[in-house]
Specification:
Elements: H1 7-13, H2 23-27, E1 57-65, H3 67-76, H4 80-85, H5 89-101, E2 107-112, E3 132-140, H6 144-148, H7 153-163, E4 168-175
Antiparallel strand pairs: 1-3, 1-4, 2-3
């Protein structure tokens, strides 16, 4: 296996049996956690969209995911025993992403799909539009504190390698005045 293979490609190609591989063999997959003991500057993020202050939605920076991808990541990044005992493989995937990246503020978040029209202001979440997408979010434009909360450059680079692309700013599903419904701390 080519040692330059991406993490995402490695995750797709892994089988449960691969969890029993030696560390040397696993090194070929380039699936190592971020060493948070090594100092790293805060990540340089893509610039916010120019309308972020006037737009009626906050923006969220992250990568598009599917439920299937998260479940597979949870299975592949865990021991066989843990994966077999877990009832919610999506949450296992999120937990493993947090552990492997060392970024505890990571969360799964639903946003408007690219190019989707802005839904009516009455949208509360229950009547959400059908054009939504799930992302793994690393930061939000909702408050100054949340915008300052960002991964280190090493963590950011790890995510870029895993997802094979830079993150994108996505529009929040809810209007700005309903941000509190997300319960993001």
């Amino acid at each position: 296996m080519d040692t330059m293979q991406s993490l995402r490609g490695a995750m797709i190609n892994l089988k449960l049996e691969d969890k029993d591989r030696s560390d040397q063999e696993r090194g070929q997959l380039m699936l190592y956690p971020v060493d948070i003991k090594i100092p790293s500057m805060p990540a340089r993020l893509p610039p916010l969209p120019s309308d972020y202050q006037t737009h009626e939605r906050h923006y969220t920076l992250g990568w598009r995911i599917t439920n299937n991808w998260m479940r597979n990541f949870g299975i592949q990044a865990s021991s066989r025993d843990v994966a077999m005992r877990t009832s919610n493989l999506f949450l296992l995937g999120l937990k493993q992403l947090k552990w492997w990246s060392g970024y505890k503020h990571l969360c799964s978040f639903t946003t408007l799909a690219d190019g989707a029209p802005i839904p009516p202001r009455s949208t509360t979440g229950e009547d959400a539009p059908s054009q939504t997408q799930r992302i793994i979010a690393v930061t939000f434009s909702a408050t100054r504190e949340l915008l300052k909360r960002r991964p280190t450059q090493a963590q950011y680079d790890w995510f870029v390698q895993l997802f094979e692309e830079e993150p994108i700013w996505y529009r929040d599903l809810l209007p700005k005045d309903r941000w509190y419904l997300h319960d993001i701390e």
